[in-house]
Design a protein that fits this description.
about 300 residues; COKA1 protein; Rossmann fold; VWF_A; secreted; 2 domains; elongated
Length: about 300
């Protein structure tokens, strides 16, 4: 299975989509690169929430491996999401290219790091990793399978978290040109933390807030006026991620000055007056001569 991510993760194909090597290689050749931001934490949550479930082709008896390929430092908390996967027995291999943060790769990856962390200077050099990475992955699967057969416990990834682990009823209120207020109903089992991600629907830098699991409301501020925002609320547990809540709303436009009046006219001056615009800290006044008149 493969997912791409920037600010919004996108599943390219599920684990059950292809059954032969040639089909996978053909899908790779047709893949379109997704540019944008680097929200690695959100991407890892997406993989657990969407890609490692039975209805996406994940087999309960199979070992779970995630290979993270990134060329930049994460703009959100990748470590928290990675720890959730690792607590479930999912192995993470981290591969950095160009500007990837090696310290972050080591935080995200599973132990032992000398087998799970790789870093190359440019994309063509990824080919040099194929042989070693293939051997390491196959050996890792065999080792884990042998442990399982010897009787060690394996944690199942929750198939359907439902109300037990997932918040409900997201409400967005008190919307202004610069802010909005979020509230939601917590799940039956309170999470360790919430991750709230919000960004303009037409593009822009996503932002993230991490809250304690006992809190179920948040005021978002310093927003852009007259802009549609996508909002997601993810509950994070030690060994699971509940289904995310999602909402969309638009901030209000900035208020305008009203009732423009002109007075005290002379041969080279005039006085302007208007009713103030709420929240304005300055005004820009543009004066233009009539067509064919003097310069502005």
């Amino acid at each position: 299975g493969l997912s791409q991510y920037s600010s919004d993760p996108r599943t390219e194909w599920d684990l059950s989509a292809y059954s032969t090597r040639d089909q996978v290689l053909e899908a790779m050749r047709n893949l379109r690169y997704k540019g944008g931001n680097t929200f690695t934490g959100l991407a890892l949550t997406h993989v657990l929430e969407k890609n490692l479930k039975p209805d996406a082709g994940a087999r309960l008896g199979a070992e779970k491996l995630v290979i993270l390929l990134t060329d930049g430092k994460s703009q959100d908390d990748a470590n928290l999401a990675a720890q959730t996967l690792k607590n479930l027995g999912i192995d993470i291999f981290a591969i950095g290219v160009k500007n990837a943060d090696e310290a972050e790769l080591k935080q995200v990856a599973s132990e032992p790091l000398e087998l799970t962390v790789y870093n190359v200077l440019d994309f063509p050099l990824l080919s040099s990793l194929i042989g070693r990475l293939t051997r390491v992955l196959c050996t890792r699967i065999k080792e884990k399978s042998n442990k399982e057969n010897a009787g060690s416990t394996v944690k199942d990834i929750p198939v359907n978290t439902g109300p037990q682990l997932s918040p409900t009823d997201l409400k967005i209120s008190a919307v202004t040109s610069k802010s909005m207020h979020l509230t939601w109903s917590p799940p039956l089992r309170p999470p360790k933390k919430y991750r709230i991600v919000y960004y303009p629907s037409k593009g822009g830098t996503p932002k993230e807030v991490v809250l304690d699991g006992a809190v179920s409301s948040l005021r978002l501020s310093n927003l852009t006026s007259h802009t549609e925002y996508l909002v997601s609320v993810f509950p994070i547990y030690d060994t699971a991620v509940g289904d995310g809540l999602r909402g969309v709303t638009s901030t209000l436009p900035l208020s305008s000055p009203r009732s423009l009046r002109v007075s005290e006219l002379s041969h080279n001056s005039m006085r302007l007056s208007w009713k103030a615009a709420q929240g304005a800290t300055q005004y820009l006044v543009l004066c233009s001569a009539a067509p064919d008149g003097a310069e502005d």
